[in-house]
């Protein structure tokens, strides 16, 4: 780590390249963050719009089927009321009712016991499509039946609910109903006479019809729609095992997302909205809306308690977005690495003169003032810096040469001064020796004069002239020596 830090610290081109790449990376990251944030927001809004539109379309399409069945049933209802005692007419009406609307899978008219004279049993006229048996013959025949039964129809909701309410209603299929195998929902209308409600007209719609419409609503490839009854049962679901055999709550187990249960309760409460939940490990959005039927004159506006939902996998919404994000990040990383390499190569080439100048300065610092700095072929700041360094090196080399010449001259003068000083010292020594010599020469005459002077005090007349001559003679010798010393001191020293 320390080596790497030192490498970054010493390598200017790498630091410049990293700075450039880092600045571009920051700006690019900020731009991509803003772009992808708004893109994600737009995708989310589009998904919510699609989900809501899909739910609304499903509600409208299902309601169109229900309305067509209700209107068809209403068209025959009054004729049935007028001919409730005519068995042949009732059978014909039931048959024509099934034939008149392709959405109707079957129809039945059931009467209370005793309504037909001489029979104390339930009477029912029933017609339904033959299905595949008729298709093999190139047609879709209607199978008719008219039966008496001791089994009370009040055990069946399609009969019991309108009988109890006295109003038309749609009845959800239940597990114990006779329609379980055919997966039907029934529109039931009470038949009135002077005695009150004497029978029920039931018109069946195959759940397969509704399922085709609901499951065809797919805002994305992996999304699907579902429809819940008022008790939480699945009226439409892509998993047929859940139809009629389960409710949203019987499927609850330890791995069930609590958000899904809360969403189901919100759907059953007739709310509109969306929830995010985990569906078998898949993150999903559920858009839901209560099933409200359009208000049409003469239509019995009874709430069914149904709810439509569209399960929208989050991956369908953001899958391409996430893949694009990964691709863009990969491209950005590769581009930044490529940019780093190119910047490193460019700055390395651009800074070659600086490295050359660094080496030249190092040699100059080591004393090689004649180190040659070549001419620059660049016109930018680096080129001008190289030219100035070249001028500085030439000027420094010239000044150093001048200083060297001056130093040599000073050394020569110093040697001359040293030689002169030595000669002066030799001259002083010689003068000192000369003075000692002169002094020594004058010492004998002086001593002789001193002795003569002492003798003069005690000498006789015969010896006095001799002593005087001696004093005079020795005095002349001293005078000559002093004159020679004076003459020598006045002479100029030889260079």
Description:
The protein is an alpha+beta fold and 495 residues long. The chain is built from eleven helices and eleven strands. It has a six-stranded antiparallel β-sheet with strand order 3-2-1-6-5-4, sandwiched between helices. The protein has a five-stranded antiparallel β-sheet with strand order 8-7-11-10-9, sandwiched between helices.
Measure the end-to-end span: 74 Å
Q: Count of DSSP E strands?
A: 11
Structural class: alpha+beta
Q: What's the helix-strand series? A: HHHEEHEHEEEHEEHEEEHHHH
The radius of gyration is 65 Å
Write down the overall mean pLDDT.
76
Approximate helicity band: 55-70%
Which overall shape is indicated by the principal axes computed on the Cα atoms?
rod-shaped
Poorly predicted residue ranges: 132-140, 175-180
Number of helices: 11
Strand content: 15-25%
Mind summarizing the main beta sheet? Answer: 6 strands, antiparallel
